[in-house]
Amino acid sequence: MKRVTLIDVGKESGVSAITVSRALRNPERVSPELRERVYAAVKKLGYVPDSAASTLASRRSTVIGILVPSFSNHVFSDVLAGASDTIEGSKYSVQIANTGYSALKEEALVPRFLTMKPAGMIITGVDQTQATRDMLAGADCPVVQIMDVSDDPIDLIVGFSNFQAAVEAVEHMVEQGFRRIAFVGTRMDPRTQQRLRGYRQTLEKYGLFDERLLITTPKKSSVEIGRHLLGELLETAPDCDGAFCNNDDVAVGIALECQNRNMRCPDDFGLCGFNDLGTTSQMNPPITSVFTPRADIGAAAARYILDRNAGQQPPENRCVDLGSTLKVRASTLRNDRKERQ
Amino acid sequence: MKRVTLIDVGKESGVSAITVSRALRNPERVSPELRERVYAAVKKLGYVPDSAASTLASRRSTVIGILVPSFSNHVFSDVLAGASDTIEGSKYSVQIANTGYSALKEEALVPRFLTMKPAGMIITGVDQTQATRDMLAGADCPVVQIMDVSDDPIDLIVGFSNFQAAVEAVEHMVEQGFRRIAFVGTRMDPRTQQRLRGYRQTLEKYGLFDERLLITTPKKSSVEIGRHLLGELLETAPDCDGAFCNNDDVAVGIALECQNRNMRCPDDFGLCGFNDLGTTSQMNPPITSVFTPRADIGAAAARYILDRNAGQQPPENRCVDLGSTLKVRASTLRNDRKERQ
DNA sequence: CTGTTAGCGCCTTCAT
DNA sequence: ATGAAGGCGCTAACAG
After folding, report:
1. N or C: which end of chain A has fewer CB within 10 A?
2. Which stretch of DSSP H or E encloses residue B229?
């Protein structure tokens, strides 16, 4: 059974192939009656467009490329879900790759995406290599960097300030009377580094910063590593009275290890996570965490690409800060337990 | 700057475009010296193949389509990671969509994938609609169904028996002296239904089955819903002494709610999760869970597609059962605490 | 509003 | 082992 082409549909509806093409892509440019005839023929013959041919002829595909550093990090699954929900139903489709948090792997992946003339690119972070930036800048398609902010966008940035989020969280902990607050960081990707900067600057402001309160590892975050890092932390800084974690998994691990060591939270130890992935709020006690608008970021990035491809102009402000929200819970509430929920 | 094409590379190396094409795709069919010359020219000119043109001419793309029900479920991120790791470095790339656990959405998604003439398809589950099955069967590319087993594969199945996994888990709990074991199920997708079947058959075998021990919800699983469902369960069946959960999140939620209600685990309540996503093993006490080889499944599915496209024959047995492993931990150990770890 | 012409870059088939 | 011819299905650019 041969493939149904535009020519077939054209014959069926008594017009030429190009007219069918137009009727399908720019319905407003053909007469209403013809439009109906074409639609009927399409349905009757079961015509489905050939994307390869379309891409070849127009030098523009309907693929939106998304680069995330990891699939297994819930943060990025939420981004993907947000983007995918927005794109779904449109003519565009999503092609995803993970960079494994490697800027070099990313640099190798980008040209592979660009050769398919994508309708848009979404890429995680603002710390691409110069080569990657150059490729993307010359890509002739909307490019959205996500998950952070910066004053030097390639095209558009949609994210939140990891730095500011950390400042808020640590300010809150200081305000609640914590004085020896550790930073517990895993992976140490660029966004975690921003959080570390926010942490450090805040503690320095109060004269509370101490190198010994820094516990970091290049390993990926997990509940297990969280447990382990608390042990490490208490050896290095036994007088530590709280931790700001770069990640919820780590915070949950620390909370469980606190239970094990009969350290009460927040009385003996204050705890703040990052991302607010859901489990933190359910722990005993509930753990304070920084909520990040992951799905919204994915959705907004996708929306921008859709809009630009529909001919819309880019916004004045090329850096969209969707903000983060500190979810204050019992794990950091020492002073004013009655006032806050 | 104009695109570098095969013709350009041909001129540079003193041969025709088609020869360059061959040198690139079937290096063994051209003379070694020419091969080197072509490679040099490719590098010099920075030639990158045009996938759209290639797809159009050969009626075969290098895209491998993957359909998962959800991005946010860790199980599928692991599958994607496994597949993506296997495919990475090959000439193939991955295109992903989520069906939102809807067979109808899946039915709409499949033709969209098939029009791009994929090099292979990976699809979750064995319960596609007949229409989906028919499309896939006629797809002229390797098709792998994953995450379950069945004796009626479309092409290949790679997974494990959800039914058998549940049987093992529930057998273990019965053996450990639990008598009023609940089934706590979220989402109730086909694989969860299989687990329910295994649970039911096992309890019936011992005369322990009771409808009142069935707690299910169409909602997605989460720690929060786990907490909530324990409450529901204890109202319906106050004498319940344990739960087999279709999911780790739910098990973790139940464990936390047990803490809250001062129910000791496993003494007052036995608990078994599903998938062994990592947190279960870190809880206090550690929670028994069924480990499922998610990444391996993704990898094996991708490997099959790569191999078939390289001309390899399919295996005799079209259903590859990678098995599951019950990770026995303190949350279900009542009888023989010393014997097991 | 609709049609004609001429490719897009590559691969299949058939020669040599 | 290499090449020539032709076409994959669609769309840009230009008519009319």
Report:
1. N
2. helix B223-236
Alpha carbon separation from B26 to A98, A338, B18, B29 (Å, rounded): 29, 74, 11, 6
Strands B270-275 and B214-217: unpaired
Q: A288-291 and A325-327: which strand pairing?
A: antiparallel
Tell me which of 3.40.50.720, 3.30.300.30, 3.40.190.170, 3.40.50.2300 is the CATH number of domain A60-160+294-310: 3.40.50.2300
The angle formed by the CA atoms of residues A334, A339 and A341, to the nearest 5 degrees, is: 85
**Chosen CATH of B162-291+326-332 out of 3.90.1150.10, 3.40.50.150, 3.40.50.1370, 3.40.50.2300:** 3.40.50.2300
Q: Which of B77, B41, B61 is nearest to B115 (CA)?
A: B61
> Would you state the pLDDT for residue B47?
87
B61 CA to D15 C1' distance (Å): 36
B338 pLDDT band, cuts 50/70/90, is very low
B211 Cβ contact list (under 8 Å, min separation 6) = none
Contacts of B49 (CB under 8 A, 6+ apart): A115, B24
Distance CA B53, CA B81 (A): 29
Asked whether residue B16's C-beta has any atom of DNA/RNA strand D within 7 A, the reply is yes
Round and report the angstrom distance from CA (A36) to C1' (D12). Answer: 25
Four-residue CA torsion sign, B163, B165, B171, B176: negative
- B61/A52 CB distance under 8 A: yes
Give the three-class secondary structure for A252.
helix
CA of B54: nucleotide with nearest C1': C10
The pTM of this model reads 0.92
